[in-house]
Write a structure and sequence with these properties.
Helices cover 44% and strands 15% of the residues. It is of the alpha/beta class and 267 residues long. It has one domain: Arc Repressor Mutant, subunit A, CATH 1.10.10.
């Protein structure tokens, strides 16, 4: 997990997004490009063929690249079908296989006890951002910083680490995102111990007040047992503003699950 790397030495988040978090890759100092190329070939040529019949591997590889370009976005089966050139049924089957083989995971929308029209589609993320970066052709930290998907990769990294933190404690990850029809959004909601922890995730380094907008909207809904908000971003280690905690999740060696669920008191 990420905090195990940062415990040894500082590890920039965008470098982490490139290398991913496979233990062997870090323990042996392997080249991420060679590692993920071999990983992908093994997965396509052996494991995938054993799980599902794929007639055209090139179409499936194209599909993987398209999914990598949509991390953190709502699942749109019709769009993936049109862009890949396969049926929506095939897209559904391929997504199921990728989730079953721990390549992808979904983040469902929150829609409980809110009398507004909310988004009902889930978001897609990669279990390991290193594979997503490889599929996108990103090889350096600077490339990630300049890429339009930098925010999505950073968000994927954070959501994935919080998910792992829950699983490592034997908990079922009760994680969601919130978005309504007017575009108000909270990147991540964690439901734990009867409380809801709203979290904003931003890849930018200078803090701006815009980071708080989604959290303020969610707080105004007045849902019971909502904890004060937390913003995870790529800047200064930690501070508070307007009753909200702002923290860099990869600056210290603290487990993100503890950082999130121990960060907020009920408002």
């Amino acid at each position: 997990m990420a905090h195990e790397l940062t415990r040894l030495a500082p590890f920039p988040s965008f470098q982490m997004a490139i290398k991913g978090l496979f233990p062997a890759l870090h323990e042996k100092g392997l080249d991420p490009r060679r590692f993920f190329n071999s990983y992908l070939q093994t997965y396509l040529e052996r494991d995938l063929r054993a799980m599902v019949r794929v007639r055209d591997l090139s179409s499936f590889l194209k599909f993987l690249v398209l999914v990598a370009g949509r991390i953190g976005n709502l699942i749109n089966l019709a769009s993936l079908s049109n862009d890949t050139g396969v049926s929506t049924t095939t897209v559904k089957n391929w997504l199921s296989v990728l989730k079953a083989s721990y390549i992808l995971f979904e983040l469902p929308p929150w829609f409980e006890n809110v009398g507004k029209r909310l988004v009902r589609s889930s978001k897609l993320y990669f279990v390991d951002t290193g594979l997503a970066s490889f599929l996108l052709g990103l090889q350096t930290e600077d490339q990630v910083k300049r890429d339009p998907l930098r925010g999505s990769l950073y968000e994927n990294l954070v959501v994935g680490e919080i998910t792992k933190g829950a699983i490592n404690r034997g908990r079922r990850p009760n994680l969601f995102f919130y978005r309504n029809s007017k575009g108000n959004e909270v990147d991540l909601l964690v439901r734990e111990g009867g409380r809801i922890f709203p979290i904003g995730i931003k890849s930018s380094e200078p803090f701006t007040r815009d980071f708080l907008r989604g959290l303020e909207h969610f707080k105004a809904l007045g849902l019971p047992r909502t904890a004060r908000g937390l913003v995870l971003y790529n800047g200064e280690p930690e501070f508070e503003t307007e009753g909200l905690r702002i923290s860099n999740p990869f600056f210290h060696d603290r487990d993100l699950w503890d950082l999130v669920t121990g960060s907020a008191l009920p408002s």
